[in-house]
Amino acid sequence: MLKVLKFGGSSLADAQQFAKVRKIVESDPSRRVVVVSAPGKRSADDHKITDLLYLCAAHIEYGVSCEKIFDMIRQRYDEIRRDCGLNTDIDKDFDQIWVHMQHGMAREELASRGEYLSARLMADYLGFDFLDAALWLRFRFDGTVDKEASYEALRRAADGRRVVIPGFYGAMPDGRIRTLTRGGSDITGALAAAALDADLYENWTDVSGILMADPRIVDNPAPIRHITYSELRELSYIGAKVLHEGTVFPVREKNIPLNIRNTNEPDHPGTVIMENIEDEEDGSLITGIAGKKGYCVVTVAKTGMSSESGVLLRLLEIVENHGVNVEYIPSGIDIISLVMAEEKAQPCLYAMLGEMQKSIQPDSIKVTDHMAIVAAVGRRMASRPGVSGKIFATLGENGVNIRMITQGPEELNIIVGVEEKDFAQAIRVLYNTFMKEQKQ
Ligand code: ASP
Predict the structure, then answer these.
(1) Given ligand 1 and candidates 168, 179, 191, which is best to mutate, with the most ligand atoms within 8 Å of its CB?
(2) Within its chain, how far is the Cα of 43 from the centroid?
(3) pTM for this structure?
(4) Among candidate residues 180, 206, 232, the one where a domain is terminated
(5) Core vs surface per residue 393-431: b (16+ CB within 10 A) or e
(6) Which CATH number belongs to the domain containing residue 165 in this structure?
(7) Which amino acid residue places its CA nearest to atom 2 of ligand 1?
(8) Is any ligand 1 atom within 6 A of the Cβ of residue 182?
(9) Containing H/E element for 311?
(10) pLDDT, tens only, 113-147
(11) What does the pLDDT look like over 44-62, one tens digit per residue?
């Protein structure tokens, strides 16, 4: 049994957090591969190490001294080392980094040192080997990760050892350090789990799993115990902020379950994400509810449109030529709506409408803006009748006017368009209705 663990910045913010990590790792001998982020914030007004490193890089770029910021970074690590009772020789690293910074250290390499130093300390603290990500996580020249080469290199380098790996970066074919996008340690962890064919990828953070709804809208939403990769994708696409984009692909490909856990509440089982779930009969019909504001809907109507060929194609071509994505396409017999992100569509809206007018010659074109999309996502919806009825009834009874309805062909979601002013209310009433039903 092998578990690959990734700990986020808040789990490494200070020595107290380091102690929690050690307890978690030591409580299970199959937890042999540990990926770490750079130390995050200790409190709301604190700074993330990675942010400070980027700040140093910006100072260097503009020729301003960053000595004070660099000292802050050094102090953070010194404090952790001292409070953990470690002798790790990071002073030499700091001196070298400082010298390198005076001679044109690349921004990405500088940013990667947060993870590098954090992994060095954690390896010492756990008594594991330090394994530099630059030795196995390989990028191609075009910036994509060369998975096959990386997997092979990690398999050889890790080879049954207990290791701590820094997240967030790897190496280009010429050896230069390259970082993933922000929050990318999640991806490093997933790549490591996939490379080593782990039985489980545990992603340790500061929340007890994925919540059924946004806690800024719903009071104390329940965590989701099990969710499929497809459901997760639906929820993240529509606005739930859960994991870094791209995290799930490596583990999903290998059918490795991903468990989101809370370092500050280690006994909580968190959320398990997997490909298929054997369902308990009494589970809630809905796995989660998410949504996003900022949509506009262009509705094109023309009598006889249904028997005219190529209308949809021409509409989509026009939108695509302007570089705008169509998110949903609810349609009727002689009417088609295109739902697009307002931010993208607004600058070229009139140009697009003009082209539609010319190409389709419709009876009418209508634009509705300030729309929000709310999606109820759940794998159980497909097999049980009455879910959409309940959604529409709930929204109706609570005075939320539904402006649009659409459902994906795999029946994983039911999506409604509402006015932005009704957005929060729609999410709240849906959550309350489906939670109440689950408790009964
Ligand atoms: N430390 C990096 C960041 O702040 C990467 C990570 O934490 O995953 O973006």
Answers:
(1) 168
(2) 22
(3) 0.86
(4) 206
(5) ebbeeeebebbbebbeeeebbbbbbbbeebbbbbbbbbb
(6) 3.40.1160.10
(7) 183
(8) yes
(9) helix 311-321
(10) 999 999 999 999 999 999 999 999 999 999 999 99
(11) 999 999 999 999 999 999 9
Query: Is pLDDT above 90 for 81?
Result: yes
Say yes or no: 293 and 198 in one domain: no
216-270 confidence digits (pLDDT tens): 999 999 999 999 988 988 888 887 777 776 788 999 999 999 999 999 999 999 9
Do the Cβ atoms of 159 and 128 come closer than 8 Å? no
Q: Which amino acid does the sequence have at 33?
A: V
Are 372 and 423 contacting, i.e. CB atoms less than 8 angstroms apart? yes
Is residue 237 in some structural domain?
A: no
Cross-sheet strand order for the sheet of 129-130: 129-130, 163-166, 31-36, 3-7, 200-205, 258-262, 271-274, 226-228
Q: 159, 185, 206: which is the final residue of a domain?
A: 206
CATH number where 370 lies: 3.30.2130.10
The answer as to whether 325 is a domain residue is yes
Domain that residue 124 falls in: 3-206
Q: How many domains does the chain have?
A: 2
Q: Is the CB of 168 under 6 A from ligand 1?
A: yes
Mean pLDDT for the chain overall: 93
Q: Give the mean pLDDT of 417-436.
A: 91
What mean pLDDT comes out for the span 309-326?
95
* CB of 167 shorter than 6 A to ligand 1: yes
Distance (Å, whole) CA 5 – CA 3: 6
